Amino acid sequence: EHLSERVVGQPEAIAAVANAIRRARAGLQDPNRPIGSFIFLGPTGVGKTETARALAEFLFDDEDAMVRIDMSEYMEQHAVARLIGAPPGYVGYEEGGQLTEAVRRRPYSVVLFDEIEKAHPDVFNVLLQILDDGRLTDGQGRTVNFRNTVIIMTSNLGSHYILEYAPRMHEPEIRERVETLVMEELRRTFRPEFLNRIDEILIFRPLGREEVKQIVELQLRRLQAMLAERKITLQVTEAAKELLAEEGFDPAFGARPLKRTIQRLLQNPLAIKLLEGEIHEGDTVVVDREPGTDRLTFTPLEAPVAAA
Description:
Layout: H1 2-6, H2 11-25, E1 36-41, H3 48-60, E2 66-70, H4 80-84, H5 98-105, E3 109-114, H6 123-133, E4 135-137, E5 143-145, E6 149-155, H7 159-164, H8 172-189, H9 192-195, E7 200-203, H10 209-228, E8 233-236, H11 238-248, H12 256-275, E9 284-289, E10 296-301
Parallel strand pairs: 1-6, 1-7, 2-3, 3-6, 8-9
Antiparallel strand pairs: 4-5, 9-10
């Protein structure tokens, strides 16, 4: 439930992650392996990274309890040493590895390997050790424990199939066909011994217009919370929400354009009005759609002045 509040339109993925966490909490998971290991597949902007952030906040009460490793930085063979640290006698030996140091300092965390398909094949040997033994030896010979981490890998592999069938993804046979095509692509890219060690491989579906409306609500709630600190109440009409969802919806890019749309149509004009003194502390601001245009109007309702 907690995860569903933050990640919209991915009930299957959320349920699978929740089940793995429940198994670990109930003590039914292998104690010598990470809490859970997942591959998240799907097009850009559908909530893969957001799920990892939500999980970090839920499990460890801190969104920053997430170690993010961008795998496009590990495309060459020699880059593997940067993950676990250079061996003795090599430059950078004292610094430690980017992955091992981060987990040594924060043993309770979500480790996110972003765009895993871009990594050099040698990187997967490092991952095999983590998934199998729940530990890794860094360049200085110290053992780093991964047993209290959740390992999440994201990939855009096969996302062209997902986007191609996007309008009919709710149909069970179409969904099954897409899953088969994506899994075939995955098997062509990754070795079987690597895929066998993953707890769950999850396919994130593309977002529809309804989901985008829900994301508008989530983003507006965050903005309202920020303004509430300045004692300003933001009231957004349904017409204004419709406009934001309409302008920010793009099936190919998911929820990413929505953030930019909210910045362009709502936050930028609001910032100007705040700085120019048109909106004051204690005001209620009504945001509505200007009839016949793609613009929003901002009407401040001044706070009632207390009688002296």
